[in-house]
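Appendix B. One record, verbatim.
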Amino acid sequence: MAEQHFSARLRARSARSRPGVGHVDERHPEQFTVVGNHLAQHPELSLTAIGLATHIQSLPDGALVGIKALAAKFPEGETRIAAALRELEAHGYLARIKERMPSGQIVTRTISYNKPQARPAAPASDSVPRREPAPEPEEPEPAAPAPVAAGPASEPPAAARPAPAPLPEPQTPDLECHRTAAELLAGLRAHDPRLLLSARDVRRLAPAVSAWLERGIEPGAVRRTLTAALPADPIHHPAALVAHRLTAMLPPPLPAVAVTPRPDPLQNCDRCDRAFRAPEPGCCPGCAARGELAA
């Protein structure tokens, strides 16, 4: 009989019983991207920034990586994507350089590094000047207008930005209509908290809403126009958004309708009892004429 050893060590636990994550690794012969642990396990970057850096490193040269292009592909939105890009730029995984094209356009060129750089910058080139990274990636924008010397007030600069259109005004002031307009504007926050207007904004925009009501638009229809299809991003200037919609979407006044005069009511003649039209009861024209001849 074999000797029993009660002091023998217990068998080590299998990998399946260990706490924490387990890995099932398979080799990728194609369509793969090598990412360093310095990025995947970065202690200061957010998960959004790490995932975005991994995605950018997997893209081919020339792919669009602007805020709008990335927001169209992922659900994080422009605000979180812009913050993640700034993180990557601050830690040396990304560089964004503004350059002026021969046509005068200013474009933003993005450079991705699979190893963090101390000072991310564009590769040295004799023909391309090195520029500071932009705070946020931008789509191609037109060249900035050159300064224009001050001239007469009747000759504004050709590239001057047009002034915003004035807010609509009612044709006839109506206190009750103005009160309805102010209540409508103050109640917009009940439909969307982002449309919180100050008392000053309500006073400024109430005449524009009164112009809508004056044109026969019901208050509910005005409210639906101001709250429909709002952007998903935060609304930083709700008063400007409401003012733009009140101005740009103002419906035309209803066309004037020709009023046809109503005929006189039917009356029964006091003498012959025949029906005839007249504003007041009395005799028909025939009886009246006979009466005048007899007199």
